[in-house]
Amino acid sequence: MIGIDVGGANLKVVDGTDVHIHYCPLWRESNLAEILGQYQGEDAAVVMSGELADGFFNKTEGIRYIVDAVRKTFPDALFYGTDGMFHNSACPELAAANWLASVDYLKEKYPNGMMLDIGSTTADIVPFAKFSDLLGMTDTIRLQRGYLVYTGMLRTPVATLADSAVINGIPTPFSTEYFACSGDAHYVLGNISDEEYSSATPDGKEVGREACLRRLARTVCADLEEIGEDGATAVAQAFWDAQKILVCSAVKKVAADAAVENIFVGGIGSPTFAPLVGGTDLTAAVGIPADALPAFAVKEIVNR
Known about the structure:
Hydantoinase_A, 11 helices, Hydantoinase A/oxoprolinase domain-containing protein, alpha/beta
């Protein structure tokens, strides 16, 4: 049995103890079925969130596309839904159920805990108690409750969270063009590696320190030669300061409202955020592949 998490930008597969992450943007012509064909011969448990990608007319079309693509390789695949049940065909309950699979798995061992799963695009912040209250919860409702914060380690445009940085001693407003992303900021600040910067860059160019700095410099309408490495790094730091406050404040509020005992942190942001929220890095402390938590979780709960 393998676990599959089909996101809008990344496809994650947990095969035994191995984790495979493929950049697979569903808003373009996707090679989802082709990638999944590499894993033939296994049964599959599947979760998704990629149905929201704007290449689809609506979520119904997105769900059908994902189910059909999976079925080409895994005709007997089972799909986990927001009702906490497994389904063998496309249905509305499959939309954005990956976070619930993670909670469903973790709550068995840690009933009074909560999860912060911060990946490339979003942060899921969900308490485990009263699991029944989570059933049927859409992403819109989670946004309203503070259980979903739409920022991540790679794909968040820098200018959506911060609006200025101090450059050469002068407060400098940001351009709102998509010049740089959170991946550029975190790479420059040492929070992610080359391998972890797995999404497309804003300008379609390479990942590397100088390339990231150049993208960050454009946020204040400058070339790197104009503001130097210190100026571009100040842009990265301004973004990180804003993101840190946003995510940590949301975690603090949910934890206080639910009176949780432990916070478990997953996603590629787990090593960075676990110390900030007083949480436990799932990979380092528990041995769970934090960067592919929903795929791991759905694989575990399908035969529970």
